[in-house]
Design goal:
mainly beta, 8-stranded antiparallel barrel, 1 helix
Length: 115
Amino acid sequence: MADTQMSAEAFDAYTRGKTLFYGFDGVAYGVERYLKNRRVIWSFLDGDCKYGTWYEDSGLICFVYDDRPDPQCWRFSEGPGGLTARFEDDPEATQLYEAEDIDEEMICYGPDVGV
């Protein structure tokens, strides 16, 4: 069964209310929590969480984060193993996949507190 590219509506229906872990080359890459109103929280599994939003642009799902306003656009597809995401729909670019249970949880540390 071939992967099916997701529209914004399908992506929202699949992800809303979920926390999805993504892998790259067999290694945990990051985690994203999908909230209502297309809000997201992303972390590279280091406790540093980035807050942002997503939108659709020319069939790609684009993310902008509070600390990085330049859009990061991905082609999301759904297949038998879950989601795959290809950066800017470029066959040579990074491709992430929805990871199975990797025995991790999303942790967000608070802002740095000075003494």
